[in-house]
Amino acid sequence: MLTVSDLRVSYGMSEVIHGINLEVGENETVAIMGRNGMGKTTLFKSLIGMIPCSGGEITFNDKKLSKLQSYQRVASGIAYVPQGRMVFPSLTVEENIMAGLEVTGRRKVPDDIYELFPVLLEMRHRKAGNLSGGQQQQLAIGRALAADPKVLLLDEPTEGIQPSIIKQLATTLNEIKQLRKISIVVSEQVLSFALNVADRMLVIDKGQIVHEAVGEQIDRAHISSYLSV
Amino acid sequence: MGGYTSQELTAIFVMQGFSGLSLFCVFLLMALGLAIIFGQMGVINMAHGEFLTLGAYITWMVSELATQTWPWMQDFYFPLAVVLAFAGTFILGYLVEMLLIRRLYSRPLDTLLATWGLGLILQQIYRSTFGPREVSVTMPDWLMGSWAPTDIIDIPLNGLLVMGITAMMTLLVVILLYRSRWGIKVRATTQNRAMANAAGINTQRVDRFTFALGCGIAGVAGAAFTTIASTGPTTGSLYIVDTFLVVVFGGAASLLGTVVSAFGIAQSQSILEFFLSGSMAKVITLLTVVGILMFRPQGLFASKVRR
């Protein structure tokens, strides 16, 4: 469904992503594992169009995305939850979700978002900047889901979140995949979390995919050897 | 105080206070446009005053048309002039964003120079088109005269009209920003342009419309301005510094701050002007503002959230 072929991304003259190939199937969760500085966030930002790619192609259901602006990619069915949440701090929770609704043309926040995240319903008139980190993470996912995506990109969703909430987050992601029949691409350093959600695991190292494993074949020890410094 | 009786002093305060209110209205209308443009795009529009001038000239042209060609329109032309002033400056703002500002985002110094140059060009165009002499509109009869609640207090009617227009525009902007879908898009873009785009908002379109709207409000300010003073090619540039002062003092992207600081600056200017000379009034106002900004560099009102 989402195909990335020979993607290259550079900051100025230095290339950070060296020709990544990636295929995301329907209703599948792919985890991209890697240490800090290996190119996870750069990969995600270039997928959503926040930084341009210098080579290669991103296609989604036969539509070429590489030249499109971010909002056009969102309109074609990709939504993005950035590292560090990046909710709009002085908008209320409800307004944040409505910002995500923009591409669908709908005006009312869909009920299933509040069902997935009851805490957002409770706090819908609060300023998003005053929410806790975990609540902001839920809001960022809710905002992305409001755009009715077919593929949800999550960049390090567990960063800075307490362990009990991380478990809950894994459950929620699995629930979202079930309910909405969408694919999820998640970048992670926390192996236990990734094992809970992923159907397939890729390891990114120095801007290249160096290891891939599906379902049963995922070898915990082997992957954690890539993650340890 | 210089041989005034207490009754006279009250009258002076009321009347100067009221003329301060007229000044406040012009400041506020200018600052509203500037604040939403600066707040959203970080663009400092040095040509903002020239948009006020354009609005004023459009009003003058409609008034000329009304007095010379269609005398029956004379009593009603003003509302039409306000609408046309808004439309004219909105369109010019839209074109300027499309042809100039859009190419200079994230280059604040370049926009500063480019818009300043644009301001000079517009001034010269006005000078060549309308002549260097100041023009004033022919006011409809119902706007002449004043309302006198006591023997020595005179409140001019045109001032009341300007206040009405200002209140309406401010309310409209507040509703647009805080109660409409467009407002959500604008505020999201203001806070994080890249993320707003990645959340599915067409930020380019939002920017263009916001810029045009800010200019349109300056046009309305120009229409209101014609009722209290005459218009020349450099009219707008006289107000631009004060308006920037209002925006910075109030705290960028805070509408309440803009209103309060416009009020404070206009009133202190107008009341001090009566007792001291105009330039001393300006010096005292500026010193006070600078003093306060040293302790509150973020402006009077900045919203309190974690960032």
UniProtKB/TrEMBL annotation, chain A:
Q: Where is the ABC transporter domain?
A: 2-229
* An MF annotation (GO) of this entry: ATP hydrolysis activity
SMART domains noted in UniProt: AAA
Coiled-coil intervals in this record?
none
Q: Does the keyword ATP-binding apply?
A: yes
Q: Name one GO biological process term.
A: L-amino acid transport
Q: Among its keywords, does the record have Iron?
A: no
Please name the NCBIfam families in this protein's record. Answer: urea_trans_UrtE
> Entry's PANTHER family?
HIGH-AFFINITY BRANCHED-CHAIN AMINO ACID TRANSPORT ATP-BINDING PROTEIN, HIGH-AFFINITY BRANCHED-CHAIN AMINO ACID TRANSPORT ATP-BINDING PROTEIN LIVF
Would you identify the family this protein belongs to, as annotated?
Belongs to the ABC transporter superfamily.
Q: What is this protein called?
A: ABC transporter domain-containing protein
Q: Which organism is it from?
A: marine sediment metagenome
The beginning of the lineage is: unclassified sequences, metagenomes, ecological metagenomes
UniProtKB/TrEMBL annotation, chain B:
- CC annotations in GO: plasma membrane
Chain segments annotated as transmembrane: 12-39, 51-70, 76-96, 108-126, 155-178, 211-232, 238-262, 274-295
A Gene Ontology annotation in the biological process aspect, one of them, is: amino acid transport
Query: Where in or outside the cell is it found?
Result: Cell membrane
**InterPro entries (alphabetical):** ABC_transp_permease (IPR001851), ABC_UrtB_bac (IPR017779), BCAA_transport_permease (IPR052157)
Q: Give the primary localization class.
A: membrane
**What is the membrane topology here?**
Multi-pass membrane protein
Q: Which Pfam families match?
A: BPD_transp_2 (PF02653)
Membrane in keyword set:
yes
Keyword Amino-acid biosynthesis applies = no
Q: What keywords were assigned to this record?
A: Amino-acid transport, Cell membrane, Membrane, Transmembrane, Transmembrane helix, Transport
Q: Give this protein's Gene Ontology molecular function annotations.
A: transmembrane transporter activity
Q: Say which family it is in.
A: Belongs to the binding-protein-dependent transport system permease family. LivHM subfamily.
Write the protein's name: Urea ABC transporter permease subunit UrtB
In which organism is this protein found? marine sediment metagenome
